[in-house]
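Why run this: before we spend reagent on co-expression, it is cheaper to look at a predicted model of the complex and decide which construct boundaries make sense. The entries below are exactly what would go into the expression plan.
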Amino acid sequence: MTLKAYRRLYPLVVAIIALVVSTSIADSKLKRRGRYVRTDVEKTVDKDSFSVELSCSTTGSLPVLTFKGQTIRTIHEVKMYETIIETPHSAAEAGPVFREKNEIKVIPGEFIAGEQSERVEIIDGNPLPNETFSINGVFTVKTDNEGKCLDKKQIILEFMDDLSVNSCTLTFKHDKLGEKEFVLTRELLKRSNQPRTVKPTPDTIPTVDILEAFGLDFTQLRSIGREGLELKIDLPEGAQPNTIITATVTATNKGNRTIGTLMVRTFSREGWLDGKMFYFGNLEPGKTMTFSRQFLVPDKAAAEASHVAFAVWNLLGRQQDQLQAFRLKRR
Amino acid sequence: MLSPKSRRLVLICLLVIGMCHAQDIKSENEKGNAEASAVAAPKSIRTRTLEELDAKNRRDRELSDIATMLKTIPALQNMEQRIIEYLRIQKRFGKLMDDIKDASSRQADIAEDIRTSLLDTKLTPQEEARLHECRQNLKSFAEQQQLMVQQIRLASRNVQNSIGALPPPPSYMSRAGIKMNLVGTMPNAFYVSAACISKDLFIAASESLKLQQEPNLPEADAPYAVANVNYYQASTFCSWLSTYEQAVYTIPGKKVFESLAQFNIVPNEAVWSSSEWQTDEVGQIRAIERFGVIMQQVWDPKQRLSSEQFIGELPIAHYESLGFLVITPAMTGIARRWQLLSQQVANEP
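The model came back. Tokens follow.
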């Protein structure tokens, strides 16, 4: 095209552009958002994580941590709405007379995007075998082939041995799967049968009651007794340094009333023997329960023997006649 | 030459004369005895009265001697010697009081004899006057003896107070053979055993309790080992010791240990305390209260059991290096000294 021709066409092009723009501006002024139609998924982001469950071994009162894979799926969504347009009423149309000047029509097939939102879903996966996790950055545990970890040192129980502590937060960490918080509680005096364990949701930290995890019932009862309690304590006679010894308390209710909220605690001058809790809960007549704790004998000992007492408490209070004391010779 | 008949008459006369003479001698003797007895009654009273005067003078000299002795005793440096001298004086006071009592009894007899004698109408005025004089003397003796009794009682009280004012002995050996040392000054002083109670003594006490017989106490120089006992056993020993010694013996508490530490009296072993263990840890306090467990305090100044001086331990615990001391009030030492010295003086001739 010659320059001259271009110059001639130039105003026409400008006029056309102006017409298109003005038309679209006019159009946009008239189109609006209508009713909500659906929610569309814009994108999905998956993140690998893990979950922890607490239970108890069948023997030895050992906590069992089960680690399972988990996918944290973040779904980015947007709400879609109808597109509606307003047009003025025509004078020649038959029908009722509208007061409004314009009528609203839905433009089929055309939608307007609305609010964006995110939704998190937790998808449970398979157990995580042979993986290493740290607890509170201090302890390290490794799962077995089934994704379970037997807490042989009863670290979980040690967190709650202080009776003034009713809950504590445990942070589990994996090199690749990140961190997970876990609230451990101990409800000693439950007033109802409602479970305290709270299943995790995307917005909440999972809460586990240690007594429920061990299958113990600590619900307060109206009618209880304490006569007929028989305690048997199995403890080795000697303790060699740098070894683990196990104390097993067997409680039998030989009376005819339930013994409520039964607990036993060790008392000793030596820290490694002192303050270990044994939980039994409600012990019905004729029933027998056992609870075991591990004690790590320290390397150095100031004396030739250690002494420990096992003291009893139930819902009616202390039971000093059941106190038993032992002497552990140093081997 | 006399005839047989004459001879017979002479013999009969001689016989009659002999019989009369014998009768005379007998009556003479009887008369003499009567006369003698009539003279001896006023004489023996007089003599007895004079004897009472001598006895009174002896008592006066004795009292004066004691008073002089009393003045010299405070100058004695040795406390035990002072007490011995005081006790000897008390013994002499006792003898004086006995003498006065005996004298009063004798004088009562004399007075009765005087009264009986005065009823005799055959007494001469001289004898009667003598008897009245004796009676007057007896009255005077009684008054003076009454005064002497009051003086002796006052002096005896003063001697008692002087003994009581003496300080307790710095140490003593108890009847069970435990050496006890004085700690502190009156009125807050007390005695503490010089060392932990020995194993042999503890065993002797246990057997004594079990068999209900006198203990077979160990020798003083027997090889020594600390009684490896728990708190309950130590308490039982103290109960036995208190009964055996007739005085209060107990296990010391925290305040006593603090006093001992101030006086630099520190046992080689850890020792039980009668105080309950108090901890600052709130959790432990609550647990102890909740479960009803008692932890007993142990004083471990040489840190034989742990790195702390005061630790809490279960009362059933026992270790080779954990023993116990016993304490008793200062009066126990004073009473023990008194008992031993009293026996010593009492055995003196």
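Residues 286 and 292 of chain B are 10 Å apart (CA to CA). The two ends of chain B are 82 Å apart (CA to CA). Bring this page to Monday's planning discussion.
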